[in-house]
Amino acid sequence: MANRCKPLHLAWANKYRPKSLLDVIGNGEAIKELTDWVRSWEKGIPKKKAAFIFGPPGVGKTSTVEALAHDYGLEFVEKNASDYRTEDAVKRFAGLASQYGSLYGGRRIILLDELDGLTGTSDKGGVKAITDILKIAQCPMVLISNSAYDPRFSTLRTNCLLIEFKKPSTSEVQKRLKQISEEESIEAEDVALKFIAQRSGGDVRSAVNDLQALGQGKGILTYDDVSWLGYRDRQDSIFNVLKMILYGKSCSSTKQAASVADVDTDMLFEWIYENVPAHFTDPHDLAEAMDALSLSDVYRGRIRATRDWGFMRYVVDYMTAGVALARKNTKSSGWIPFRFPQRIQMLSRSRAERALRSSIGVKIKRKNHISARRATKEVIPYLKIIFENNEEMAAGLGKWLDLDQEMVEYLAGDEEKAESIFKLMG
Amino acid sequence: MSFEVWTEKYRPKKLAEIVDQKDIVERLKSFTKSKNVPHCIFAGPPGTGKTTAALCLARDLYGEAYREHTMELNASDERGIDVVRETVKTFARVRSIGEVHFKIMILDEADNMTSDAQQALRRTMERYTETCRFVMCANYSGKIIEPIQSRCAPFRFTYLPREAHDSQLMEIAEKEEVKLSKEGLDAIFEVCGGDLRRAINTLQSSASLGKPVDAKVVYAITGKASPVDVHEMLKVAMDGDFIGSRKRLRDMIQKYGVAGSDIIRQIHTEIFKAELPEKWKVRLAGIVGEADFRLVEGADEEIQLSALLARLVEAGCDFRNGK
Predict the structure, then answer these.
(1) Any idea what the Cα angle at residue B292 is, between residues B287 and B293, rounded to 5°?
(2) Is ipTM beyond 0.95?
(3) Residues in CB range of A212: below 8 A, 6 or more apart
(4) Do the Cβ atoms of B307 and A291 come within 8 Å?
(5) How far is B294 from chain A (nearest CA, A)?
(6) What is the pLDDT of residues A49-61, one digit of tens each?
(7) Rounded CA gap, B134 and B121, in Å?
(8) Is CATH 3.40.50.300 what the domain over B6-156 is classified as, yes or no?
(9) Which tens digit of pLDDT belongs to each residue from A260-282?
């Protein structure tokens, strides 16, 4: 195979960087605007001597300028943030800009990349120096930044042609991924490529990196291979993990998904438990999925009972593969949002109440020869009825159990009533 | 009407006062006569007199000063291994002064102890047999490890038979001047199923309304005491709304602290009351039984019960489709 000879360590994001403007994905209008401006230099120095390109990371800003230089045979000079941090540093390449062409007669394009890299006040001199260079520039200069509206660049902006680069669409990214897979002789499922493209959110560079991480050295790339991908942000992560578990098709991919989740197993369990019903709408599938969770939970109980953490593997098996493979009849019906585990939310909300209940439980335990736990569950409901209905009896019990006002209030469920019970208690 | 908790007020003080569990009481009496008590396991369902029997045994042995020679520990609250190592050991190793030269350690709800703690306990029991005897109360003796079981004399407590249950409650009603009707008594028995503690709690809270205690009052009270509309929850599930029924379940468990075992018992009762083909009832009972078993194995109540609800949603769907 051809790709065997290619060096494997080369980053595909560089290897497949567009050589020509024709290879650049999307942003057709922006590219045309930029090209027209560069060509206008052939007729003499235009009013705006610099173009200011802005847009999110990984959408091809730098690549476009490179490709442009290539297509029009311009000498390409690239400078990064470190080159213009201070006024002195900028002045060092000022000479390049003030000359019309290169030593060899061709024309030159100067790219000042990563303008965002200029930070704080110490770099102020840098921005000013760049502005100065623009005045004397004799060749096209391109400035690149993620945001155009940073106040530090206000003076720069007024002297530049503003060009915005937007995120390419998923299908555009997917198309590019397909080309690369073909070049690399990878037989990739469309859904797999689509998944990578979607996940990248228009960042072509990260999409290509993902494709390389997952596909390099493989002949075939399936959805299951990509679905457990590493994630770039937390919230995103748990959603993706859930998606892979609830919609997984094989044991290995769902189990892998659990292993990359950045929440612990118990929390992941809660996430799955919360979201299973909405994503398994067929009653049979739901019952099977819940049964898998139930069995997973049985093993958690066994861990508690035996302190043998080896059982954890069965906990994970059931909650991931067990749940995923319960899906038989439920079709995926569009996008259903994942919900934060309500049980956890409720648990923390009712924490104060439970604390109060258990302190009453301890009082009951002292007098009643039963555990506080049992008292809380079995005696408090009866006490509540008595406290709500019979102030005299409540006062007697309150005194006998040595309850404080807060406890009486909780049991009576009414401040006024609690007040008079408390008075009767003396 | 008095203002204590009636379960305490009417708890028998001496073995002779215990009306039921005759065989057990006779054996215990023989222990007090000979002033020797082996390690014991009192196993049986809640509200059948295990703790009472243990306390009576102690009182009969030591007289009113029994507290000096007895320690009551609730394994459900203090079930870790450290408690066994420290509290139990400290108590067990010091010889009792007096006629009876050993102390009594009552370990309530012992089946809730971790198996590690039980292992530690086994050593302590052996080492300090001379100075301390253990009475372990448990719902399920099966949850007590073999080596401890083999060191103990087993006592099996059963639910009070109907007559004993009735006579106890009528006696209390009379002393408290509460009008308790025959129907009220029936209702209490139906709801509490021979669990005397629950029965007395139900009677007292019913009496607190200040009306004669009849079936209507009892059902109203128990409906409130377990704000568990299990019936409604099951209906919602059988109608196909899993999320709705899970919400109800969650409220019961989290807001009202209802025990999973109680909920499952009620589900079981409800199923046989439901208007379903007989064949279905048996099928559903099997599903409930499996959930019950998993609960006993120490799993999470909400998870197990909601898995059960999912099965009922499934059954409801099959049922509507005539399967």
Answers:
(1) 100
(2) no
(3) A11, A12, A13
(4) yes
(5) 6
(6) 889 998 887 888 9
(7) 10
(8) yes
(9) 777 778 889 999 999 999 999 89
Q: How far is residue A308's CA from residue A321's CA, in Å, rounded to a whole number?
A: 22
Q: Which residues of A touch B7 (CB under 8 A)?
A: 368
Query: pTM to 2 decimals?
Result: 0.52
Cα separation, A376 vs A344, in Å, equals 21
A307 backbone dihedrals φ, ψ, rounded to 5°:
60, 20
In angstroms, the CA B120 to CA B134 distance is 14
The count of CB pairs under 8 A between chains A and B is 171
Contact A304 B298 (CB under 8 A): yes
Say whether B303 and A294 touch across the interface (CB within 8 A): yes
| B162-225 is a CATH 1.10.8.60 domain | yes
Q: Residue A283 in contact with residue A257, Cβ under 8 Å?
A: no
Q: Binning pLDDT at 50, 70 and 90, where does residue B92 land?
A: confident
Question: CB distance B303–A293 less than 8 Å?
Answer: yes
A319 vs B contacts (CB less than 8 Å):
none
What confidence score (pLDDT) does residue A235 get? 46
Which of A9-13, A152-156, B177-181 has the highest mean predicted lDDT (pLDDT)?
B177-181
Cβ contact, residue pair A277, B4, below 8 Å: no
- List CB contacts (< 8 A) between B209 and chain A: 389-390
Dist. CA A79–CA A112, nearest whole Å: 5
User: How far apart are alpha carbons B258 and B241 in whole angstroms?
Assistant: 22
For the ranges A2-6, A52-56, B4-8, B112-116, the lowest mean pLDDT is seen at: A2-6
Q: Amino acid letter at B299? A: A
CA dihedral of A263, A268, A274, A275, whole degrees rounded to 10: 90
Q: Do B208 and A371 touch (CB under 8 A)?
A: no
The DSSP letter of residue A20 is S
A97-111, A146-160, A371-385, B39-53: which has the minimum mean pLDDT? A97-111
> Which strand ranges, in their side-by-side order, compose the sheet holding A108-112?
A75-79, A108-112, A141-145, A50-54, A160-164
CA A273 to the chain's CA centroid: 22
Contact A389 B209 (CB under 8 A): yes
Question: Which CATH number describes the domain made up of B230-320?
Answer: 1.20.272.10
Question: What's the mean pLDDT in B251-276?
Answer: 81
Residue A231 predicted with pLDDT over 50: no
pLDDT digits (tens, 9 = 90+) for A5-27: 444 456 788 888 888 888 888 88
pLDDT at A83 over 70: no
- pLDDT tier for residue A348 given thresholds of 50, 70 and 90: low
Residues A255 and A226: their CA atoms lie apart, in Å, by: 13
User: Helix, strand, or coil here: B198?
Assistant: helix
Question: Taking CB atoms and an 8 Å cutoff, what residues of chain B touch A358?
Answer: none
- Taking only residues 363 to 422 of chain A, the set having a beta carbon closer than 8 angstroms to any beta carbon of chain B reads 364-365, 367-374, 376-386, 389-390, 392-397, 399-401
CB A240 within 8 A of CB A229: yes
Contacts of A6 (CB under 8 A, 6+ apart): none
Question: Which of B147, B224, B157, B244 has its CA nearest to residue B194?
Answer: B157
- Facing B255 at nearest CB: one of A350, A365, A382: A350
pLDDT for position B85: 74
**Bridge partners of residue B71, in order along the sequence:** B105
What residue ranges define each of the domains in chain A, with the CATH number in brackets? 27-164 (3.40.50.300), 248-347 (no CATH), 351-425 (no CATH)
For residues B50-77, average pLDDT: 89
